[in-house]
Amino acid sequence: MNDSTTMNNAETVTRIPLIAGNWKMNHDHLQAIALVQKLSWTLSDANHDYEKCEVVVFPPFTDIRSVQTLVGADKLSVTLGAQDISKFDSGAYTGEVSGVFLKKLDVKYVLVGHSERRTNHHETDQTVQEKTAAAFRTGLIPIICVGETLEELETQGQSAVPVAQVIAALAGHQKLSDFVIAYEPVWAIGTGKVATPEEAAIVCGKIREAIAAEHGPEIAAATRILYGGSVKANNVAGFLKSPEVDGVLVGGASLDADEFSGIARFQKHIVL
Ligand code: PGA
């Protein structure tokens, strides 16, 4: 079983796996074109079925127009995401990027609350809630990133902080549109340390239970919950074996077309 399927009121909900590549501040627009071209060729050589496993790249803002043009001209199936969004739609906010502009560039997903934004830019749960609202308002799907630091892991255990961050990001919206959660333990990002597949599955399960308790079982069953933190082609299958984990958010390994396409083809490594 490669898709995650949940029984919900006698109705079966299938969540399409999502493989997301967060390039962070790497690659100019020319390097971005080369990487997306190589990624698409590699996946098409492997007959990748994008309807069964979505592949999304999150280039820096300055690359998005170039990647959009390439995707449009060559009719590629790779989907575009952005790494951040302003909580405002327009106005005197120097340096910020509106979701309205991203939507015009065919961006489908936007990361909100990545731990690097929470740490380096002091983004609070309230900021993350407001950016989630901006994504909903402008027709983008937020990928809400949550996760505990090493200190929080030691003092509060693994799931308390990510669950509280999810509840905060989803609170106070008139209506919830589509959203995705990415559980990324901060201690596992860019460090080479990974949560075990069992630990990741437990936390993702707790997050889904919290969504069900706050927003109902239908929304919980339809929501994709990803794991992120030092994911590579050689460890991805362990995470995605669990029905609680619906995809991965990949940093470093998404900068290499062969490695990232190996991650997207995780179904090939799962021995059932
Ligand atoms: P990493 O980054 O895969 O390099 O650990 C993950 C992320 O920051 O989303």
Could you please describe the fold and organization of this structure?
This protein is an alpha/beta fold and 272 residues long. It has one domain (4-269): Aldolase class I (TIM Barrel, Alpha-Beta Barrel). Helix content is 41%, strand content 18%. The chain has an eight-stranded parallel β-barrel, surrounded by five helices. Strands 1-2 form a two-stranded antiparallel ribbon. Strand 9, helix 10 and strand 10 form a beta-alpha-beta unit. Helix 1 packs across helix 2, helix 1 (29-45) packs across helix 11 (257-264) and helix 5 (125-137) crosses helix 7. 2-phosphoglycolic acid (PGA) binds next to strand 10. 2-phosphoglycolic acid binds at residues 22, 184, 189-190, 228-231, 249-253. One of its GO terms (biological process) is glycolytic process. GO terms for molecular function: triose-phosphate isomerase activity. Pathway: Carbohydrate degradation; glycolysis; D-glyceraldehyde 3-phosphate from glycerone phosphate: step 1/1.
Which SSEs are present, and which pair or pack?
Elements: E1 4-8, E2 11-15, E3 18-22, H1 29-45, E4 54-58, H2 61-73, E5 79-82, H3 99-104, E6 107-112, H4 115-120, H5 125-137, E7 141-146, H6 150-156, H7 160-170, E8 180-183, H8 197-215, H9 217-222, E9 224-228, H10 236-240, E10 247-250, H11 257-264
